[in-house]
């Protein structure tokens, strides 16, 4: 059993052979943390790639996320069992509530308690949340306690730094995972990131990842290319100066990319 590796492999949008190849390449180049979700429709392929990858289960950290249709007590645990069957695993390392219930039609305490029951049953080693506002996180903490919440996964990249939620989450010592850390590729053309990248002789993507890591976030970039998967892992070796961190901090423009119509009222 390992704790969450700082860089994980995202799998949103990747389907069929593309996700099999991405996870297979990822495991080969050294990823030990895979992020999937029920709604990605790829848990079976992720499971297949993990099974053929032959990394010892104890050396792998696998996260899945409960979709909004499965937040009731009646559905949450059966849906997680279905995810485990697809992933060919007895237990995942982390299960997140993917989004708060649309329009708060189900109380946060209801699904957090169901998720805690799933953990007590051994279906998941840790539990956490994703896309939670301060109000939702407050209710989750009231329901199960901050110490039970192993991660809050939220959109964070240089153009959406999400500081209010980050500060609140940190004030409860809840670890943060930055999703969409490359702003779905937008970081690659930013002049400030490119300038810093040139100085370090790395890519803008690597600088964006280093910026996330240096703030203590774990981060889960995705890529369909083995070379990018490999170079993203190397971001762990980059040390940014205070001036470089400040220059990236100044890029915040509240540019939210993941904003479906059922999203909560953001902080
Ligand atoms: N909890 C949530 O609600 C939520 C929402 C969104 C995402 N996520 C998670 O976060 C993960 C990451 O987000 P994302 O996949 O949407 O976007 P992302 O990781 O920010 O960006 C992926 C894009 O960046 C490109 N890229 C990757 N590495 C690169 C490199 N070294 N150089 C240049 N381009 C590079 C990829 O293209 P190539 O394929 O060509 O490399 C792809 O187009 C998801 O896969 C998912 O697991 C969670």
How would you explain this protein's 3D organization?
By secondary structure, the chain is of the alpha/beta class. It has one domain: Alpha-Beta Barrel (TIM Barrel), CATH 3.20.20. 41% of the residues lie in helices and 14% in strands. The mean pLDDT is 98. The chain binds NADP nicotinamide-adenine-dinucleotide phosphate.
Write the topology of this structure.
Layout: E1 9-10, H1 16-29, E2 33-35, H2 43-53, E3 61-66, H3 73-87, E4 92-97, H4 108-120, E5 124-130, H5 134-144, E6 149-155, H6 163-171, E7 176-179, H7 191-200, H8 204-214, E8 218-219, H9 226-233, H10 242-249
Parallel strand pairs: 1-2, 2-3, 3-4, 4-5, 5-6, 6-7, 7-8
Helix pairs in contact: 1-2, 2-3, 3-4, 4-5, 7-8
NADP nicotinamide-adenine-dinucleotide phosphate binds next to helix 9.
């Amino acid at each position: 059993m390992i704790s969450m590796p700082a860089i994980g492999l995202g799998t949103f949008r990747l389907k069929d052979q593309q996700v099999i190849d991405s996870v297979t390449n990822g495991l080969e180049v050294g990823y030990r943390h895979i992020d999937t979700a029920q709604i990605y429709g790829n848990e079976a392929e992720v499971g297949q790639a993990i099974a053929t990858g032959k990394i010892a289960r104890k050396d792998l950290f696998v996260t899945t996320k409960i979709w909004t249709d499965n937040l009731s007590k009646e559905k949450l645990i059966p849906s997680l069992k279905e995810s485990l069957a697809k992933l060919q695993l007895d237990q995942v390392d982390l299960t997140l509530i993917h989004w708060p219930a649309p329009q708060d039609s189900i109380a946060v305490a209801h699904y957090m308690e169901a998720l805690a029951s799933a953990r007590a049953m051994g279906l998941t080693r840790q539990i956490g949340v994703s896309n939670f506002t301060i109000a939702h996180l407050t209710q989750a903490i009231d329901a199960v306690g901050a110490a039970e919440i192993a991660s809050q996964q939220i959109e964070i990249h240089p153009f959406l730094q999400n500081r209010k939620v980050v500060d609140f989450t940190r004030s409860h010592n809840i670890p943060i995972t930055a999703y969409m850390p490359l702003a779905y590729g937008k970081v690659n053309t930013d002049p400030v990131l490119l300038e810093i990248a040139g100085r370090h002789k790395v890519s803008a993507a690597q600088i964006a990842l280093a910026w996330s890591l240096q703030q203590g976030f774990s981060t889960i970039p995705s890529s369909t290319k083995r070379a990018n998967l490999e170079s993203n892992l190397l971001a762990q070796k980059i040390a940014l100066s205070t001036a470089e961190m400040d220059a990236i901090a100044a890029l915040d423009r509240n540019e939210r990319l993941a904003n479906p119509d059922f999203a909560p009222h953001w902080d």
